[in-house]
Each structure stands twice: as structure tokens, then as C-alpha cells.
Write a structure and sequence with these properties.
Helix content: 40-55%
CATH topology of the largest domain: Alpha-D-Glucose-1,6-Bisphosphate, Chain A, domain 3
Radius of gyration: 26 Å
Protein name: Phospho-sugar mutase
Strand content: 15-25%
Structural class: alpha/beta
Distance between the termini: 34 Å
Shape: globular
Keywords: Isomerase, Magnesium, Metal-binding, Phosphoprotein
GO molecular function: magnesium ion binding; phosphopentomutase activity
CATH class of the largest domain: Alpha Beta
Largest sheet: 7 strands, mixed
CATH superfamily of the largest domain: Alpha-D-Glucose-1,6-Bisphosphate, subunit A, domain 3
Number of helices: 17
InterPro entries: A-D-PHexomutase_a/b/a-I, A-D-PHexomutase_a/b/a-I/II/III, A-D-PHexomutase_a/b/a-II, A-D-PHexomutase_a/b/a-III, A-D-PHexomutase_C, A-D-PHexomutase_C_sf, A-D-PHexomutase_CS, Alpha-D-phosphohexomutase_SF
Cofactor: Mg(2+)
Number of domains: 5
CATH architecture of the largest domain: 3-Layer(aba) Sandwich
């Protein structure tokens, strides 16, 4: 047995002198950062952290490494991370540097002829901690850099900022939000106008912006010019969003006869976010039923006191919504995430604990996609033409949308994960991702929009009620018309991000030949050049019976994710459901066994 403090074979020992040197270097970097930080809150955080590290607190060393050992990476999703001091955290220095770098990119873009002259930007923010402060920093830096700048007047939903980019004809947009992340996080989301049409950024724009940010970060933040000469937008923008969303919703779907005789009771939660006021204005503009809000969650509160993880997908996140639903005997539960770009719908369900079951993202995506296809059919009939356009979803979402597109003679596209790809599909009519994101009216907003999607969902429920049906009945009708699709996920938690990537690579080098005895008919590696818009670490296996297995490492957590889809189009509704669900269980079991073997064997 090795003596205490001695090395065992295979261990890597870091000399104490190296550890001390690393700690001292981080302390020096932290002090240099503190000297340029103009926010007293984060300056004090840095001082206290340094003092703890100098006193020998090992936890302080770890915190120093996390906050000052690198920089918060800018990517296609912009920035997102914990609020705090240091270059690897969300704070006023990082936001200012990022804004200056983005401004430089916009000027370069204009000089290359890729944007109109005199670049402009619109800035929005949600109700999270520091969102308003960060948004004003963005506005001052952009204005100081000569970018024509418009700041939205108050906290609002992400879809409103995405709308503003198109409505105002801006060159770009920034939304300060961390969407459904934990309370301690915030973020910086970027849109581009002009040829990008108000969509989120995609490569290579992210890399170009990141390079500008790195150059800016090499100079003191105090040297960045700032100006308070910018425009604060008036109420007309919100009125336009409500009006255009209402008009798009009603196109092809007038209020059905009998709807007034079939009122809906609706429970609603904004999840402590910014969706409530805007959503209810849209509902009123479209003569939809009023909602009963969860009182504890209706107003913005960046502390999110009633939920630890404000994501409607998370277990327990809808508990208060279900409580309210039971109190009013609700026919429908509507839930937005804190920035209202995602939507969850739940319905009464006698076999579920609590009396309500949330529709999966794939189930609601199928129904809203069907609705969009029918809207296009009605529009085409009125214009004496054939239906045209595309339905789209991400590659890890259910392929049920393909069946809808085929039935209506529409195009269909599968994109990489993220609405930055979905929104760019030519001729898009509707797009979704299984993680509760829906783009129901791309002519208005080129990003997922939980508000417009919720209005469509409520209208759909009202139409069902007017004919004595429910959304469950509508899902049954979809299974009979398009076939029954079943979807499931397997999430394997691993020790590190590296471990998840290594396991994915092991699968790539030794691909499966079958799952549950069902042969793999086609294997596709999206890292292969040309297989996707950009190479992606995703492995796709199409099985002979029409089922599909997708495997990918998470880009943000130490997990390997597997998405499974099965299908049955034969027999009665009960037979179709039984066949698809049975196949799903069999394949999921086989996937778990396969991955267990992959972890324990170098060669599978």
C-alpha cells in the first residue's frame, strides 16, 4: 500500500509548486480583472474570492479557475452562463466586450456589402437578474460604436425581440436572456437582419464575431466608447406584434360555429417569466378564451422562487399549474418558459397522477404542423393554386411531420438541432423541435415563438370543443390519417464531456448492425462532409421496419443522448398504437444494452 501522500502507479501528480504557481497566476488575473471592472458588485466578488484563495481556501482556487481560467465562449447561441465576476461568467465587462466585438463585426459586414449602410440594432431583455442592466450596457456600447441603436422599453419575451429585428428592418438584434436555464444564469442571444431575415446566427458568423470579441478583450474595457444617444422604442412595436400575430392566427381558421357554446377553462403559467401580459393581449386580440394564471408565477421574478429549474420539461415544474387547473377544472394547461419562446400544453388525463398529462414536444409539433398544412391548403384553395411550402423539424424530432407534408403535397426538411437552422428552410410554413420549440408563423418571427404557438394551440382546443372532441381525439385522428408515431429518449449520464464524446466515437468506429433484432438499413454519420449544413457529431440509424435511432453527445452537459422513433401504419388505432409502442420499448431496451456493452468494451 502506498504511503499517505505518495503516488500510486498510473496517477499523475501535480507538484505543489506548480499548483501554487497556477493559483498565483489566477489571482493575478483576477486582480487585473477587478481593476478594470466598473461594477461594484462583481468587483467585490472578485476581492472576496482572491482573499479566500490567498488564505488557502481550496474551494476558492476551484472557483478562481472556473471564473478566470478561460473565457465564456461565444457561439451560434451567443453567450450563456452563470452571473458573476471573471471572463468566464456573465457580467457587465463581458457584455460590454461582447457588444463592442459584435459592433465591429456589423461594421465589417456592412463594409463587405452584406448589410445595408448605417448598421442598426434592436435590443431586448427578459426579467432575469441583471437583464435590464446588461441591455443598457449593450445599448451604450453599440451607440458608442456608431451603430444606430433601439432599446425595447421594458422586459419582454424573446419572440418580441426577434419580431422587432424584422419589423424595424434592423441589421441585427440582441436579446438578453438565458431562456429556461437555472436562476443563476443569464445570456446574450444574437440575431441578424438583412439577408439572414432575422434568424439566429450560424457559422461562420459566430467565429467571426468571436474573433472580434477576443481582439476587443485585449484592451481595457474603459477604453470602449459609450453613448446614451439611442432610441427607446415606443408601444407601437408591441401593438404591431399583437396585431400581426392575431391576423396570421385567424387566416384560414375563423372562429368555428358553436365555439361560444363550448367555453374552455384554461390554466396558464408564465413560470416567473415575461410572457403573461403579451400572451394575454394576443389571446384577447384573437377572441380566444381568457386564462386563469398561476398567481405565484405570473409576474417576472429572476429568483424563480417556486421552481428550481424553470423549464416546463422538468419534473415538477408544472405542479402549480396543475394545482390551478384542478381548482378551475381546466380543459387545458398552457405554460411558457421564462422568456416565452417555448410552450408546453397539458390536458386532463385520468390515468396520470395529478390528473393532467403534458403533451410531448413531438405530439404538439405534429398537431401544430398539421394545422399549418391545413391553413396552407385553405389559403391555396382561396387563391386557386396548389398548396406549397415546407414543414421542417430538427433531426432529433419525430419524423411524423414528414407524413403530414406528404399527405398535403408539401416539402419537408430535417435540420440540425436549433432554430437557427429550422428558420432558414426555404418556403417554411412551420417548424419545430422536440424540446418544446415551435415556429408557427415564420413570416412574422424567424425563431421559436411560444406565444403565437400557444394561441394556435388554444384555438385548436376550442375548435375541438365546438364539435365535442378533445385534443386527445385529434391525436387519435392523426394516428389514423398519418400513422402512429412513438418517440422516446435514452440519456446516459457520464463522468465528463470527454467521456460522452469518447463513447460516441466508440459507437462510430464499431457501429451497430441491429437493435432488438431489427437490422440497420441505413447508417449516417453527420460528421461526414456534406451530410448536414455543418458537420455535427450525430449518428443516425434507420432500421428496416421504419424505426430510427439517433445518437449524439450533449454539447452542454456530460451526457450521451439517444432519440428513438417508431411507426405503425397498419390496422386499427389500437393496433397501430400497440405496435409502435411495443417496438419503442424493445428498441429502447436494446439501446441501453448496446451502450452498456460499448462502455465496457474497447471493441463493442
Amino acid at each position: 500500500m502506498a504511503k499517505p501522500g505518495s503516488a500510486v502507479p498510473g496517477d499523475t501528480v501535480t507538484p505543489a509548486s506548480d499548483t501554487a504557481g497556477r493559483s498565483q497566476l489566477l489571482i493575478s488575473e483576477a486582480l487585473a480583472w477587478e481593476a478594470q471592472d466598473f461594477d461594484e458588485v462583481t468587483r467585490q466578488q472578485t476581492r472576496e474570492l482572491v482573499a479566500r484563495a490567498q488564505a488557502g481556501d481550496p474551494e476558492a482556487d476551484a472557483e478562481l479557475a472556473a471564473a478566470f481560467g478561460g473565457r465564456l465562449a461565444f457561439g451560434t447561441a451567443g453567450l450563456r452562463g452563470p452571473i458573476g465576476s471573471g471572463p468566464a461568467r456573465m457580467n457587465r465587462v463581458v457584455v460590454s466586450q461582447t457588444s463592442a466585438g459584435f459592433a465591429a463585426y456589423l461594421r465589417d459586414r456592412t463594409a463587405r456589402g452584406e448589410a445595408r449602410k448605417n448598421p442598426s440594432i434592436v435590443i431586448g431583455y427578459d426579467g432575469r437578474v441583471n437583464s435590464k442592466i446588461f441591455a443598457h450596457d449593450v445599448a451604450e456600447i453599440m451607440a458608442g460604436a456608431g451603430i444606430r441603436t433601439t432599446l425595447l422599453p421594458e422586459a419582454g419575451p424573446t419572440p418580441l425581440t426577434a419580431f422587432a429585428v424584422r419589423y424595424l428592418g434592423a441589421s441585427a438584434g440582441v436579446m438578453i436572456t438565458a431562456s429556461h436555464n437555472p436562476p443563476q444564469d443569464n445570456g446574450y442571444k444574437v440575431y441578424l437582419g438583412d439577408a439572414d431575415g432575422g434568424s439566429q446566427i450560424v457559422p461562420p458568423a459566430d467565429g467571426e464575431i468571436a474573433a472580434h470579441i477576443d481582439r476587443v478583450a485585449a484592451t481595457p474595457v474603459a477604453d470602449l466608447p459609450r453613448s446614451r444617444i439611442y432610441t427607446v422604442e415606443g408601444p407601437g412595436l408591441l401593438e404591431a406584434y399583437v396585431s400581426e400575430t392575431a391576423s396570421a392566427l385567424l387566416a384560414g381558421f375563423p372562429k368555428p360555429e358553436g365555439a361560444a357554446d363550448a367555453p374552455l377553462a384554461i390554466a396558464y403559467t408564465a413560470m416567473h417569466g415575461v410572457g403573461s401580459a403579451v400572451a394575454q393581449r394576443v389571446f384577447a386580440a384573437t377572441s380566444l378564451p381568457s386564462v386563469t394564471s398561476v398567481p405565484e408565477q405570473d409576474q417576472p421574478d429572476g429568483a424563480f422562487p417556486t421552481v428550481s429549474f424553470p423549464n416546463p420539461e422538468e419534473p415538477g415544474a408544472l405542479d402549480l399549474a396543475f394545482r390551478t387547473a384542478r381548482e378551475i377544472n381546466a380543459d387545458l394547461v398552457v405554460a411558457h418558459d421564462p422568456d416565452a419562446d417555448r410552450l408546453a400544453i397539458a390536458l386532463p388525463h385520468s390515468e396520470t397522477t395529478g390528473g393532467y398529462r403534458r403533451l410531448t414536444g413531438n405530439e404538439l409539433g405534429l398537431l401544430l404542423g398539421w394545422r399549418a398544412a391545413e391553413r396552407e391548403r385553405v389559403r391555396a384553395l382561396a387563391e386557386d393554386r396548389e398548396p406549397s411550402g415546407a414543414l421542417a423539424c430538427t433531426i432529433v424530432s419525430s419524423p411524423a411531420l414528414r407524413a403530414v407534408a406528404n399527405d398535403y403535397g408539401l416539402d419537408y426538411a430535417e435540420t440540425l438541432s436549433g432554430f437557427k437552422w429550422v428558420s432558414r428552410v426555404p418556403g417554411l410554413l412551420f417548424g419545430f423541435e422536440e424540446a418544446l420549440g415551435y415556429l408557427t408563423h415564420p413570416e412574422i418571427v424567424r425563431d421559436k415563438d411560444g406565444i403565437s404557438a400557444s394561441a394556435d394551440a388554444i384555438a385548436m382546443a376550442r375548435e375541438c370543443a365546438a364539435t365535442g372532441r378533445t385534443i386527445w381525439d385529434l391525436l387519435d385522428e392523426a394516428s389514423l390519417r398519418f400513422g402512429h408515431f412513438a418517440s422516446g429518449q435514452v440519456t446516459l449520464r457520464l463522468a465528463s464531456m470527454t467521456a460522452s464524446t469518447e463513447l460516441s466515437e466508440r459507437v462510430r468506429q464499431n457501429p451497430p448492425q441491429d437493435f432488438a433484432g431489427i437490422p440497420v438499413e441505413k447508417a449516417q454519420d453527420l460528421l461526414t462532409p456534406g451530410a448536414a449544413e455543418v458537420p455535427a457529431n450525430v449518428l443516425r440509424y434507420d432500421l428496416e421496419d421504419g424505426s430510427r435511432v439517433m445518437i449524439r453527445p450533449s454539447g452542454t452537459e456530460p451526457k450521451l443522448k439517444v432519440y428513438i422513433d417508431t411507426f405503425s401504419g397498419e390496422g386499427s388505432l389500437a393496433e397501430r398504437r400497440e405496435a409502435a409502442e411495443t417496438a419503442l420499448v424493445r428498441i429502447e431496451t436494446a439501446v441501453r444494452e448496446y451502450l452498456a456493452d460499448a462502455q465496457n468494451s474497447e471493441t463493442l
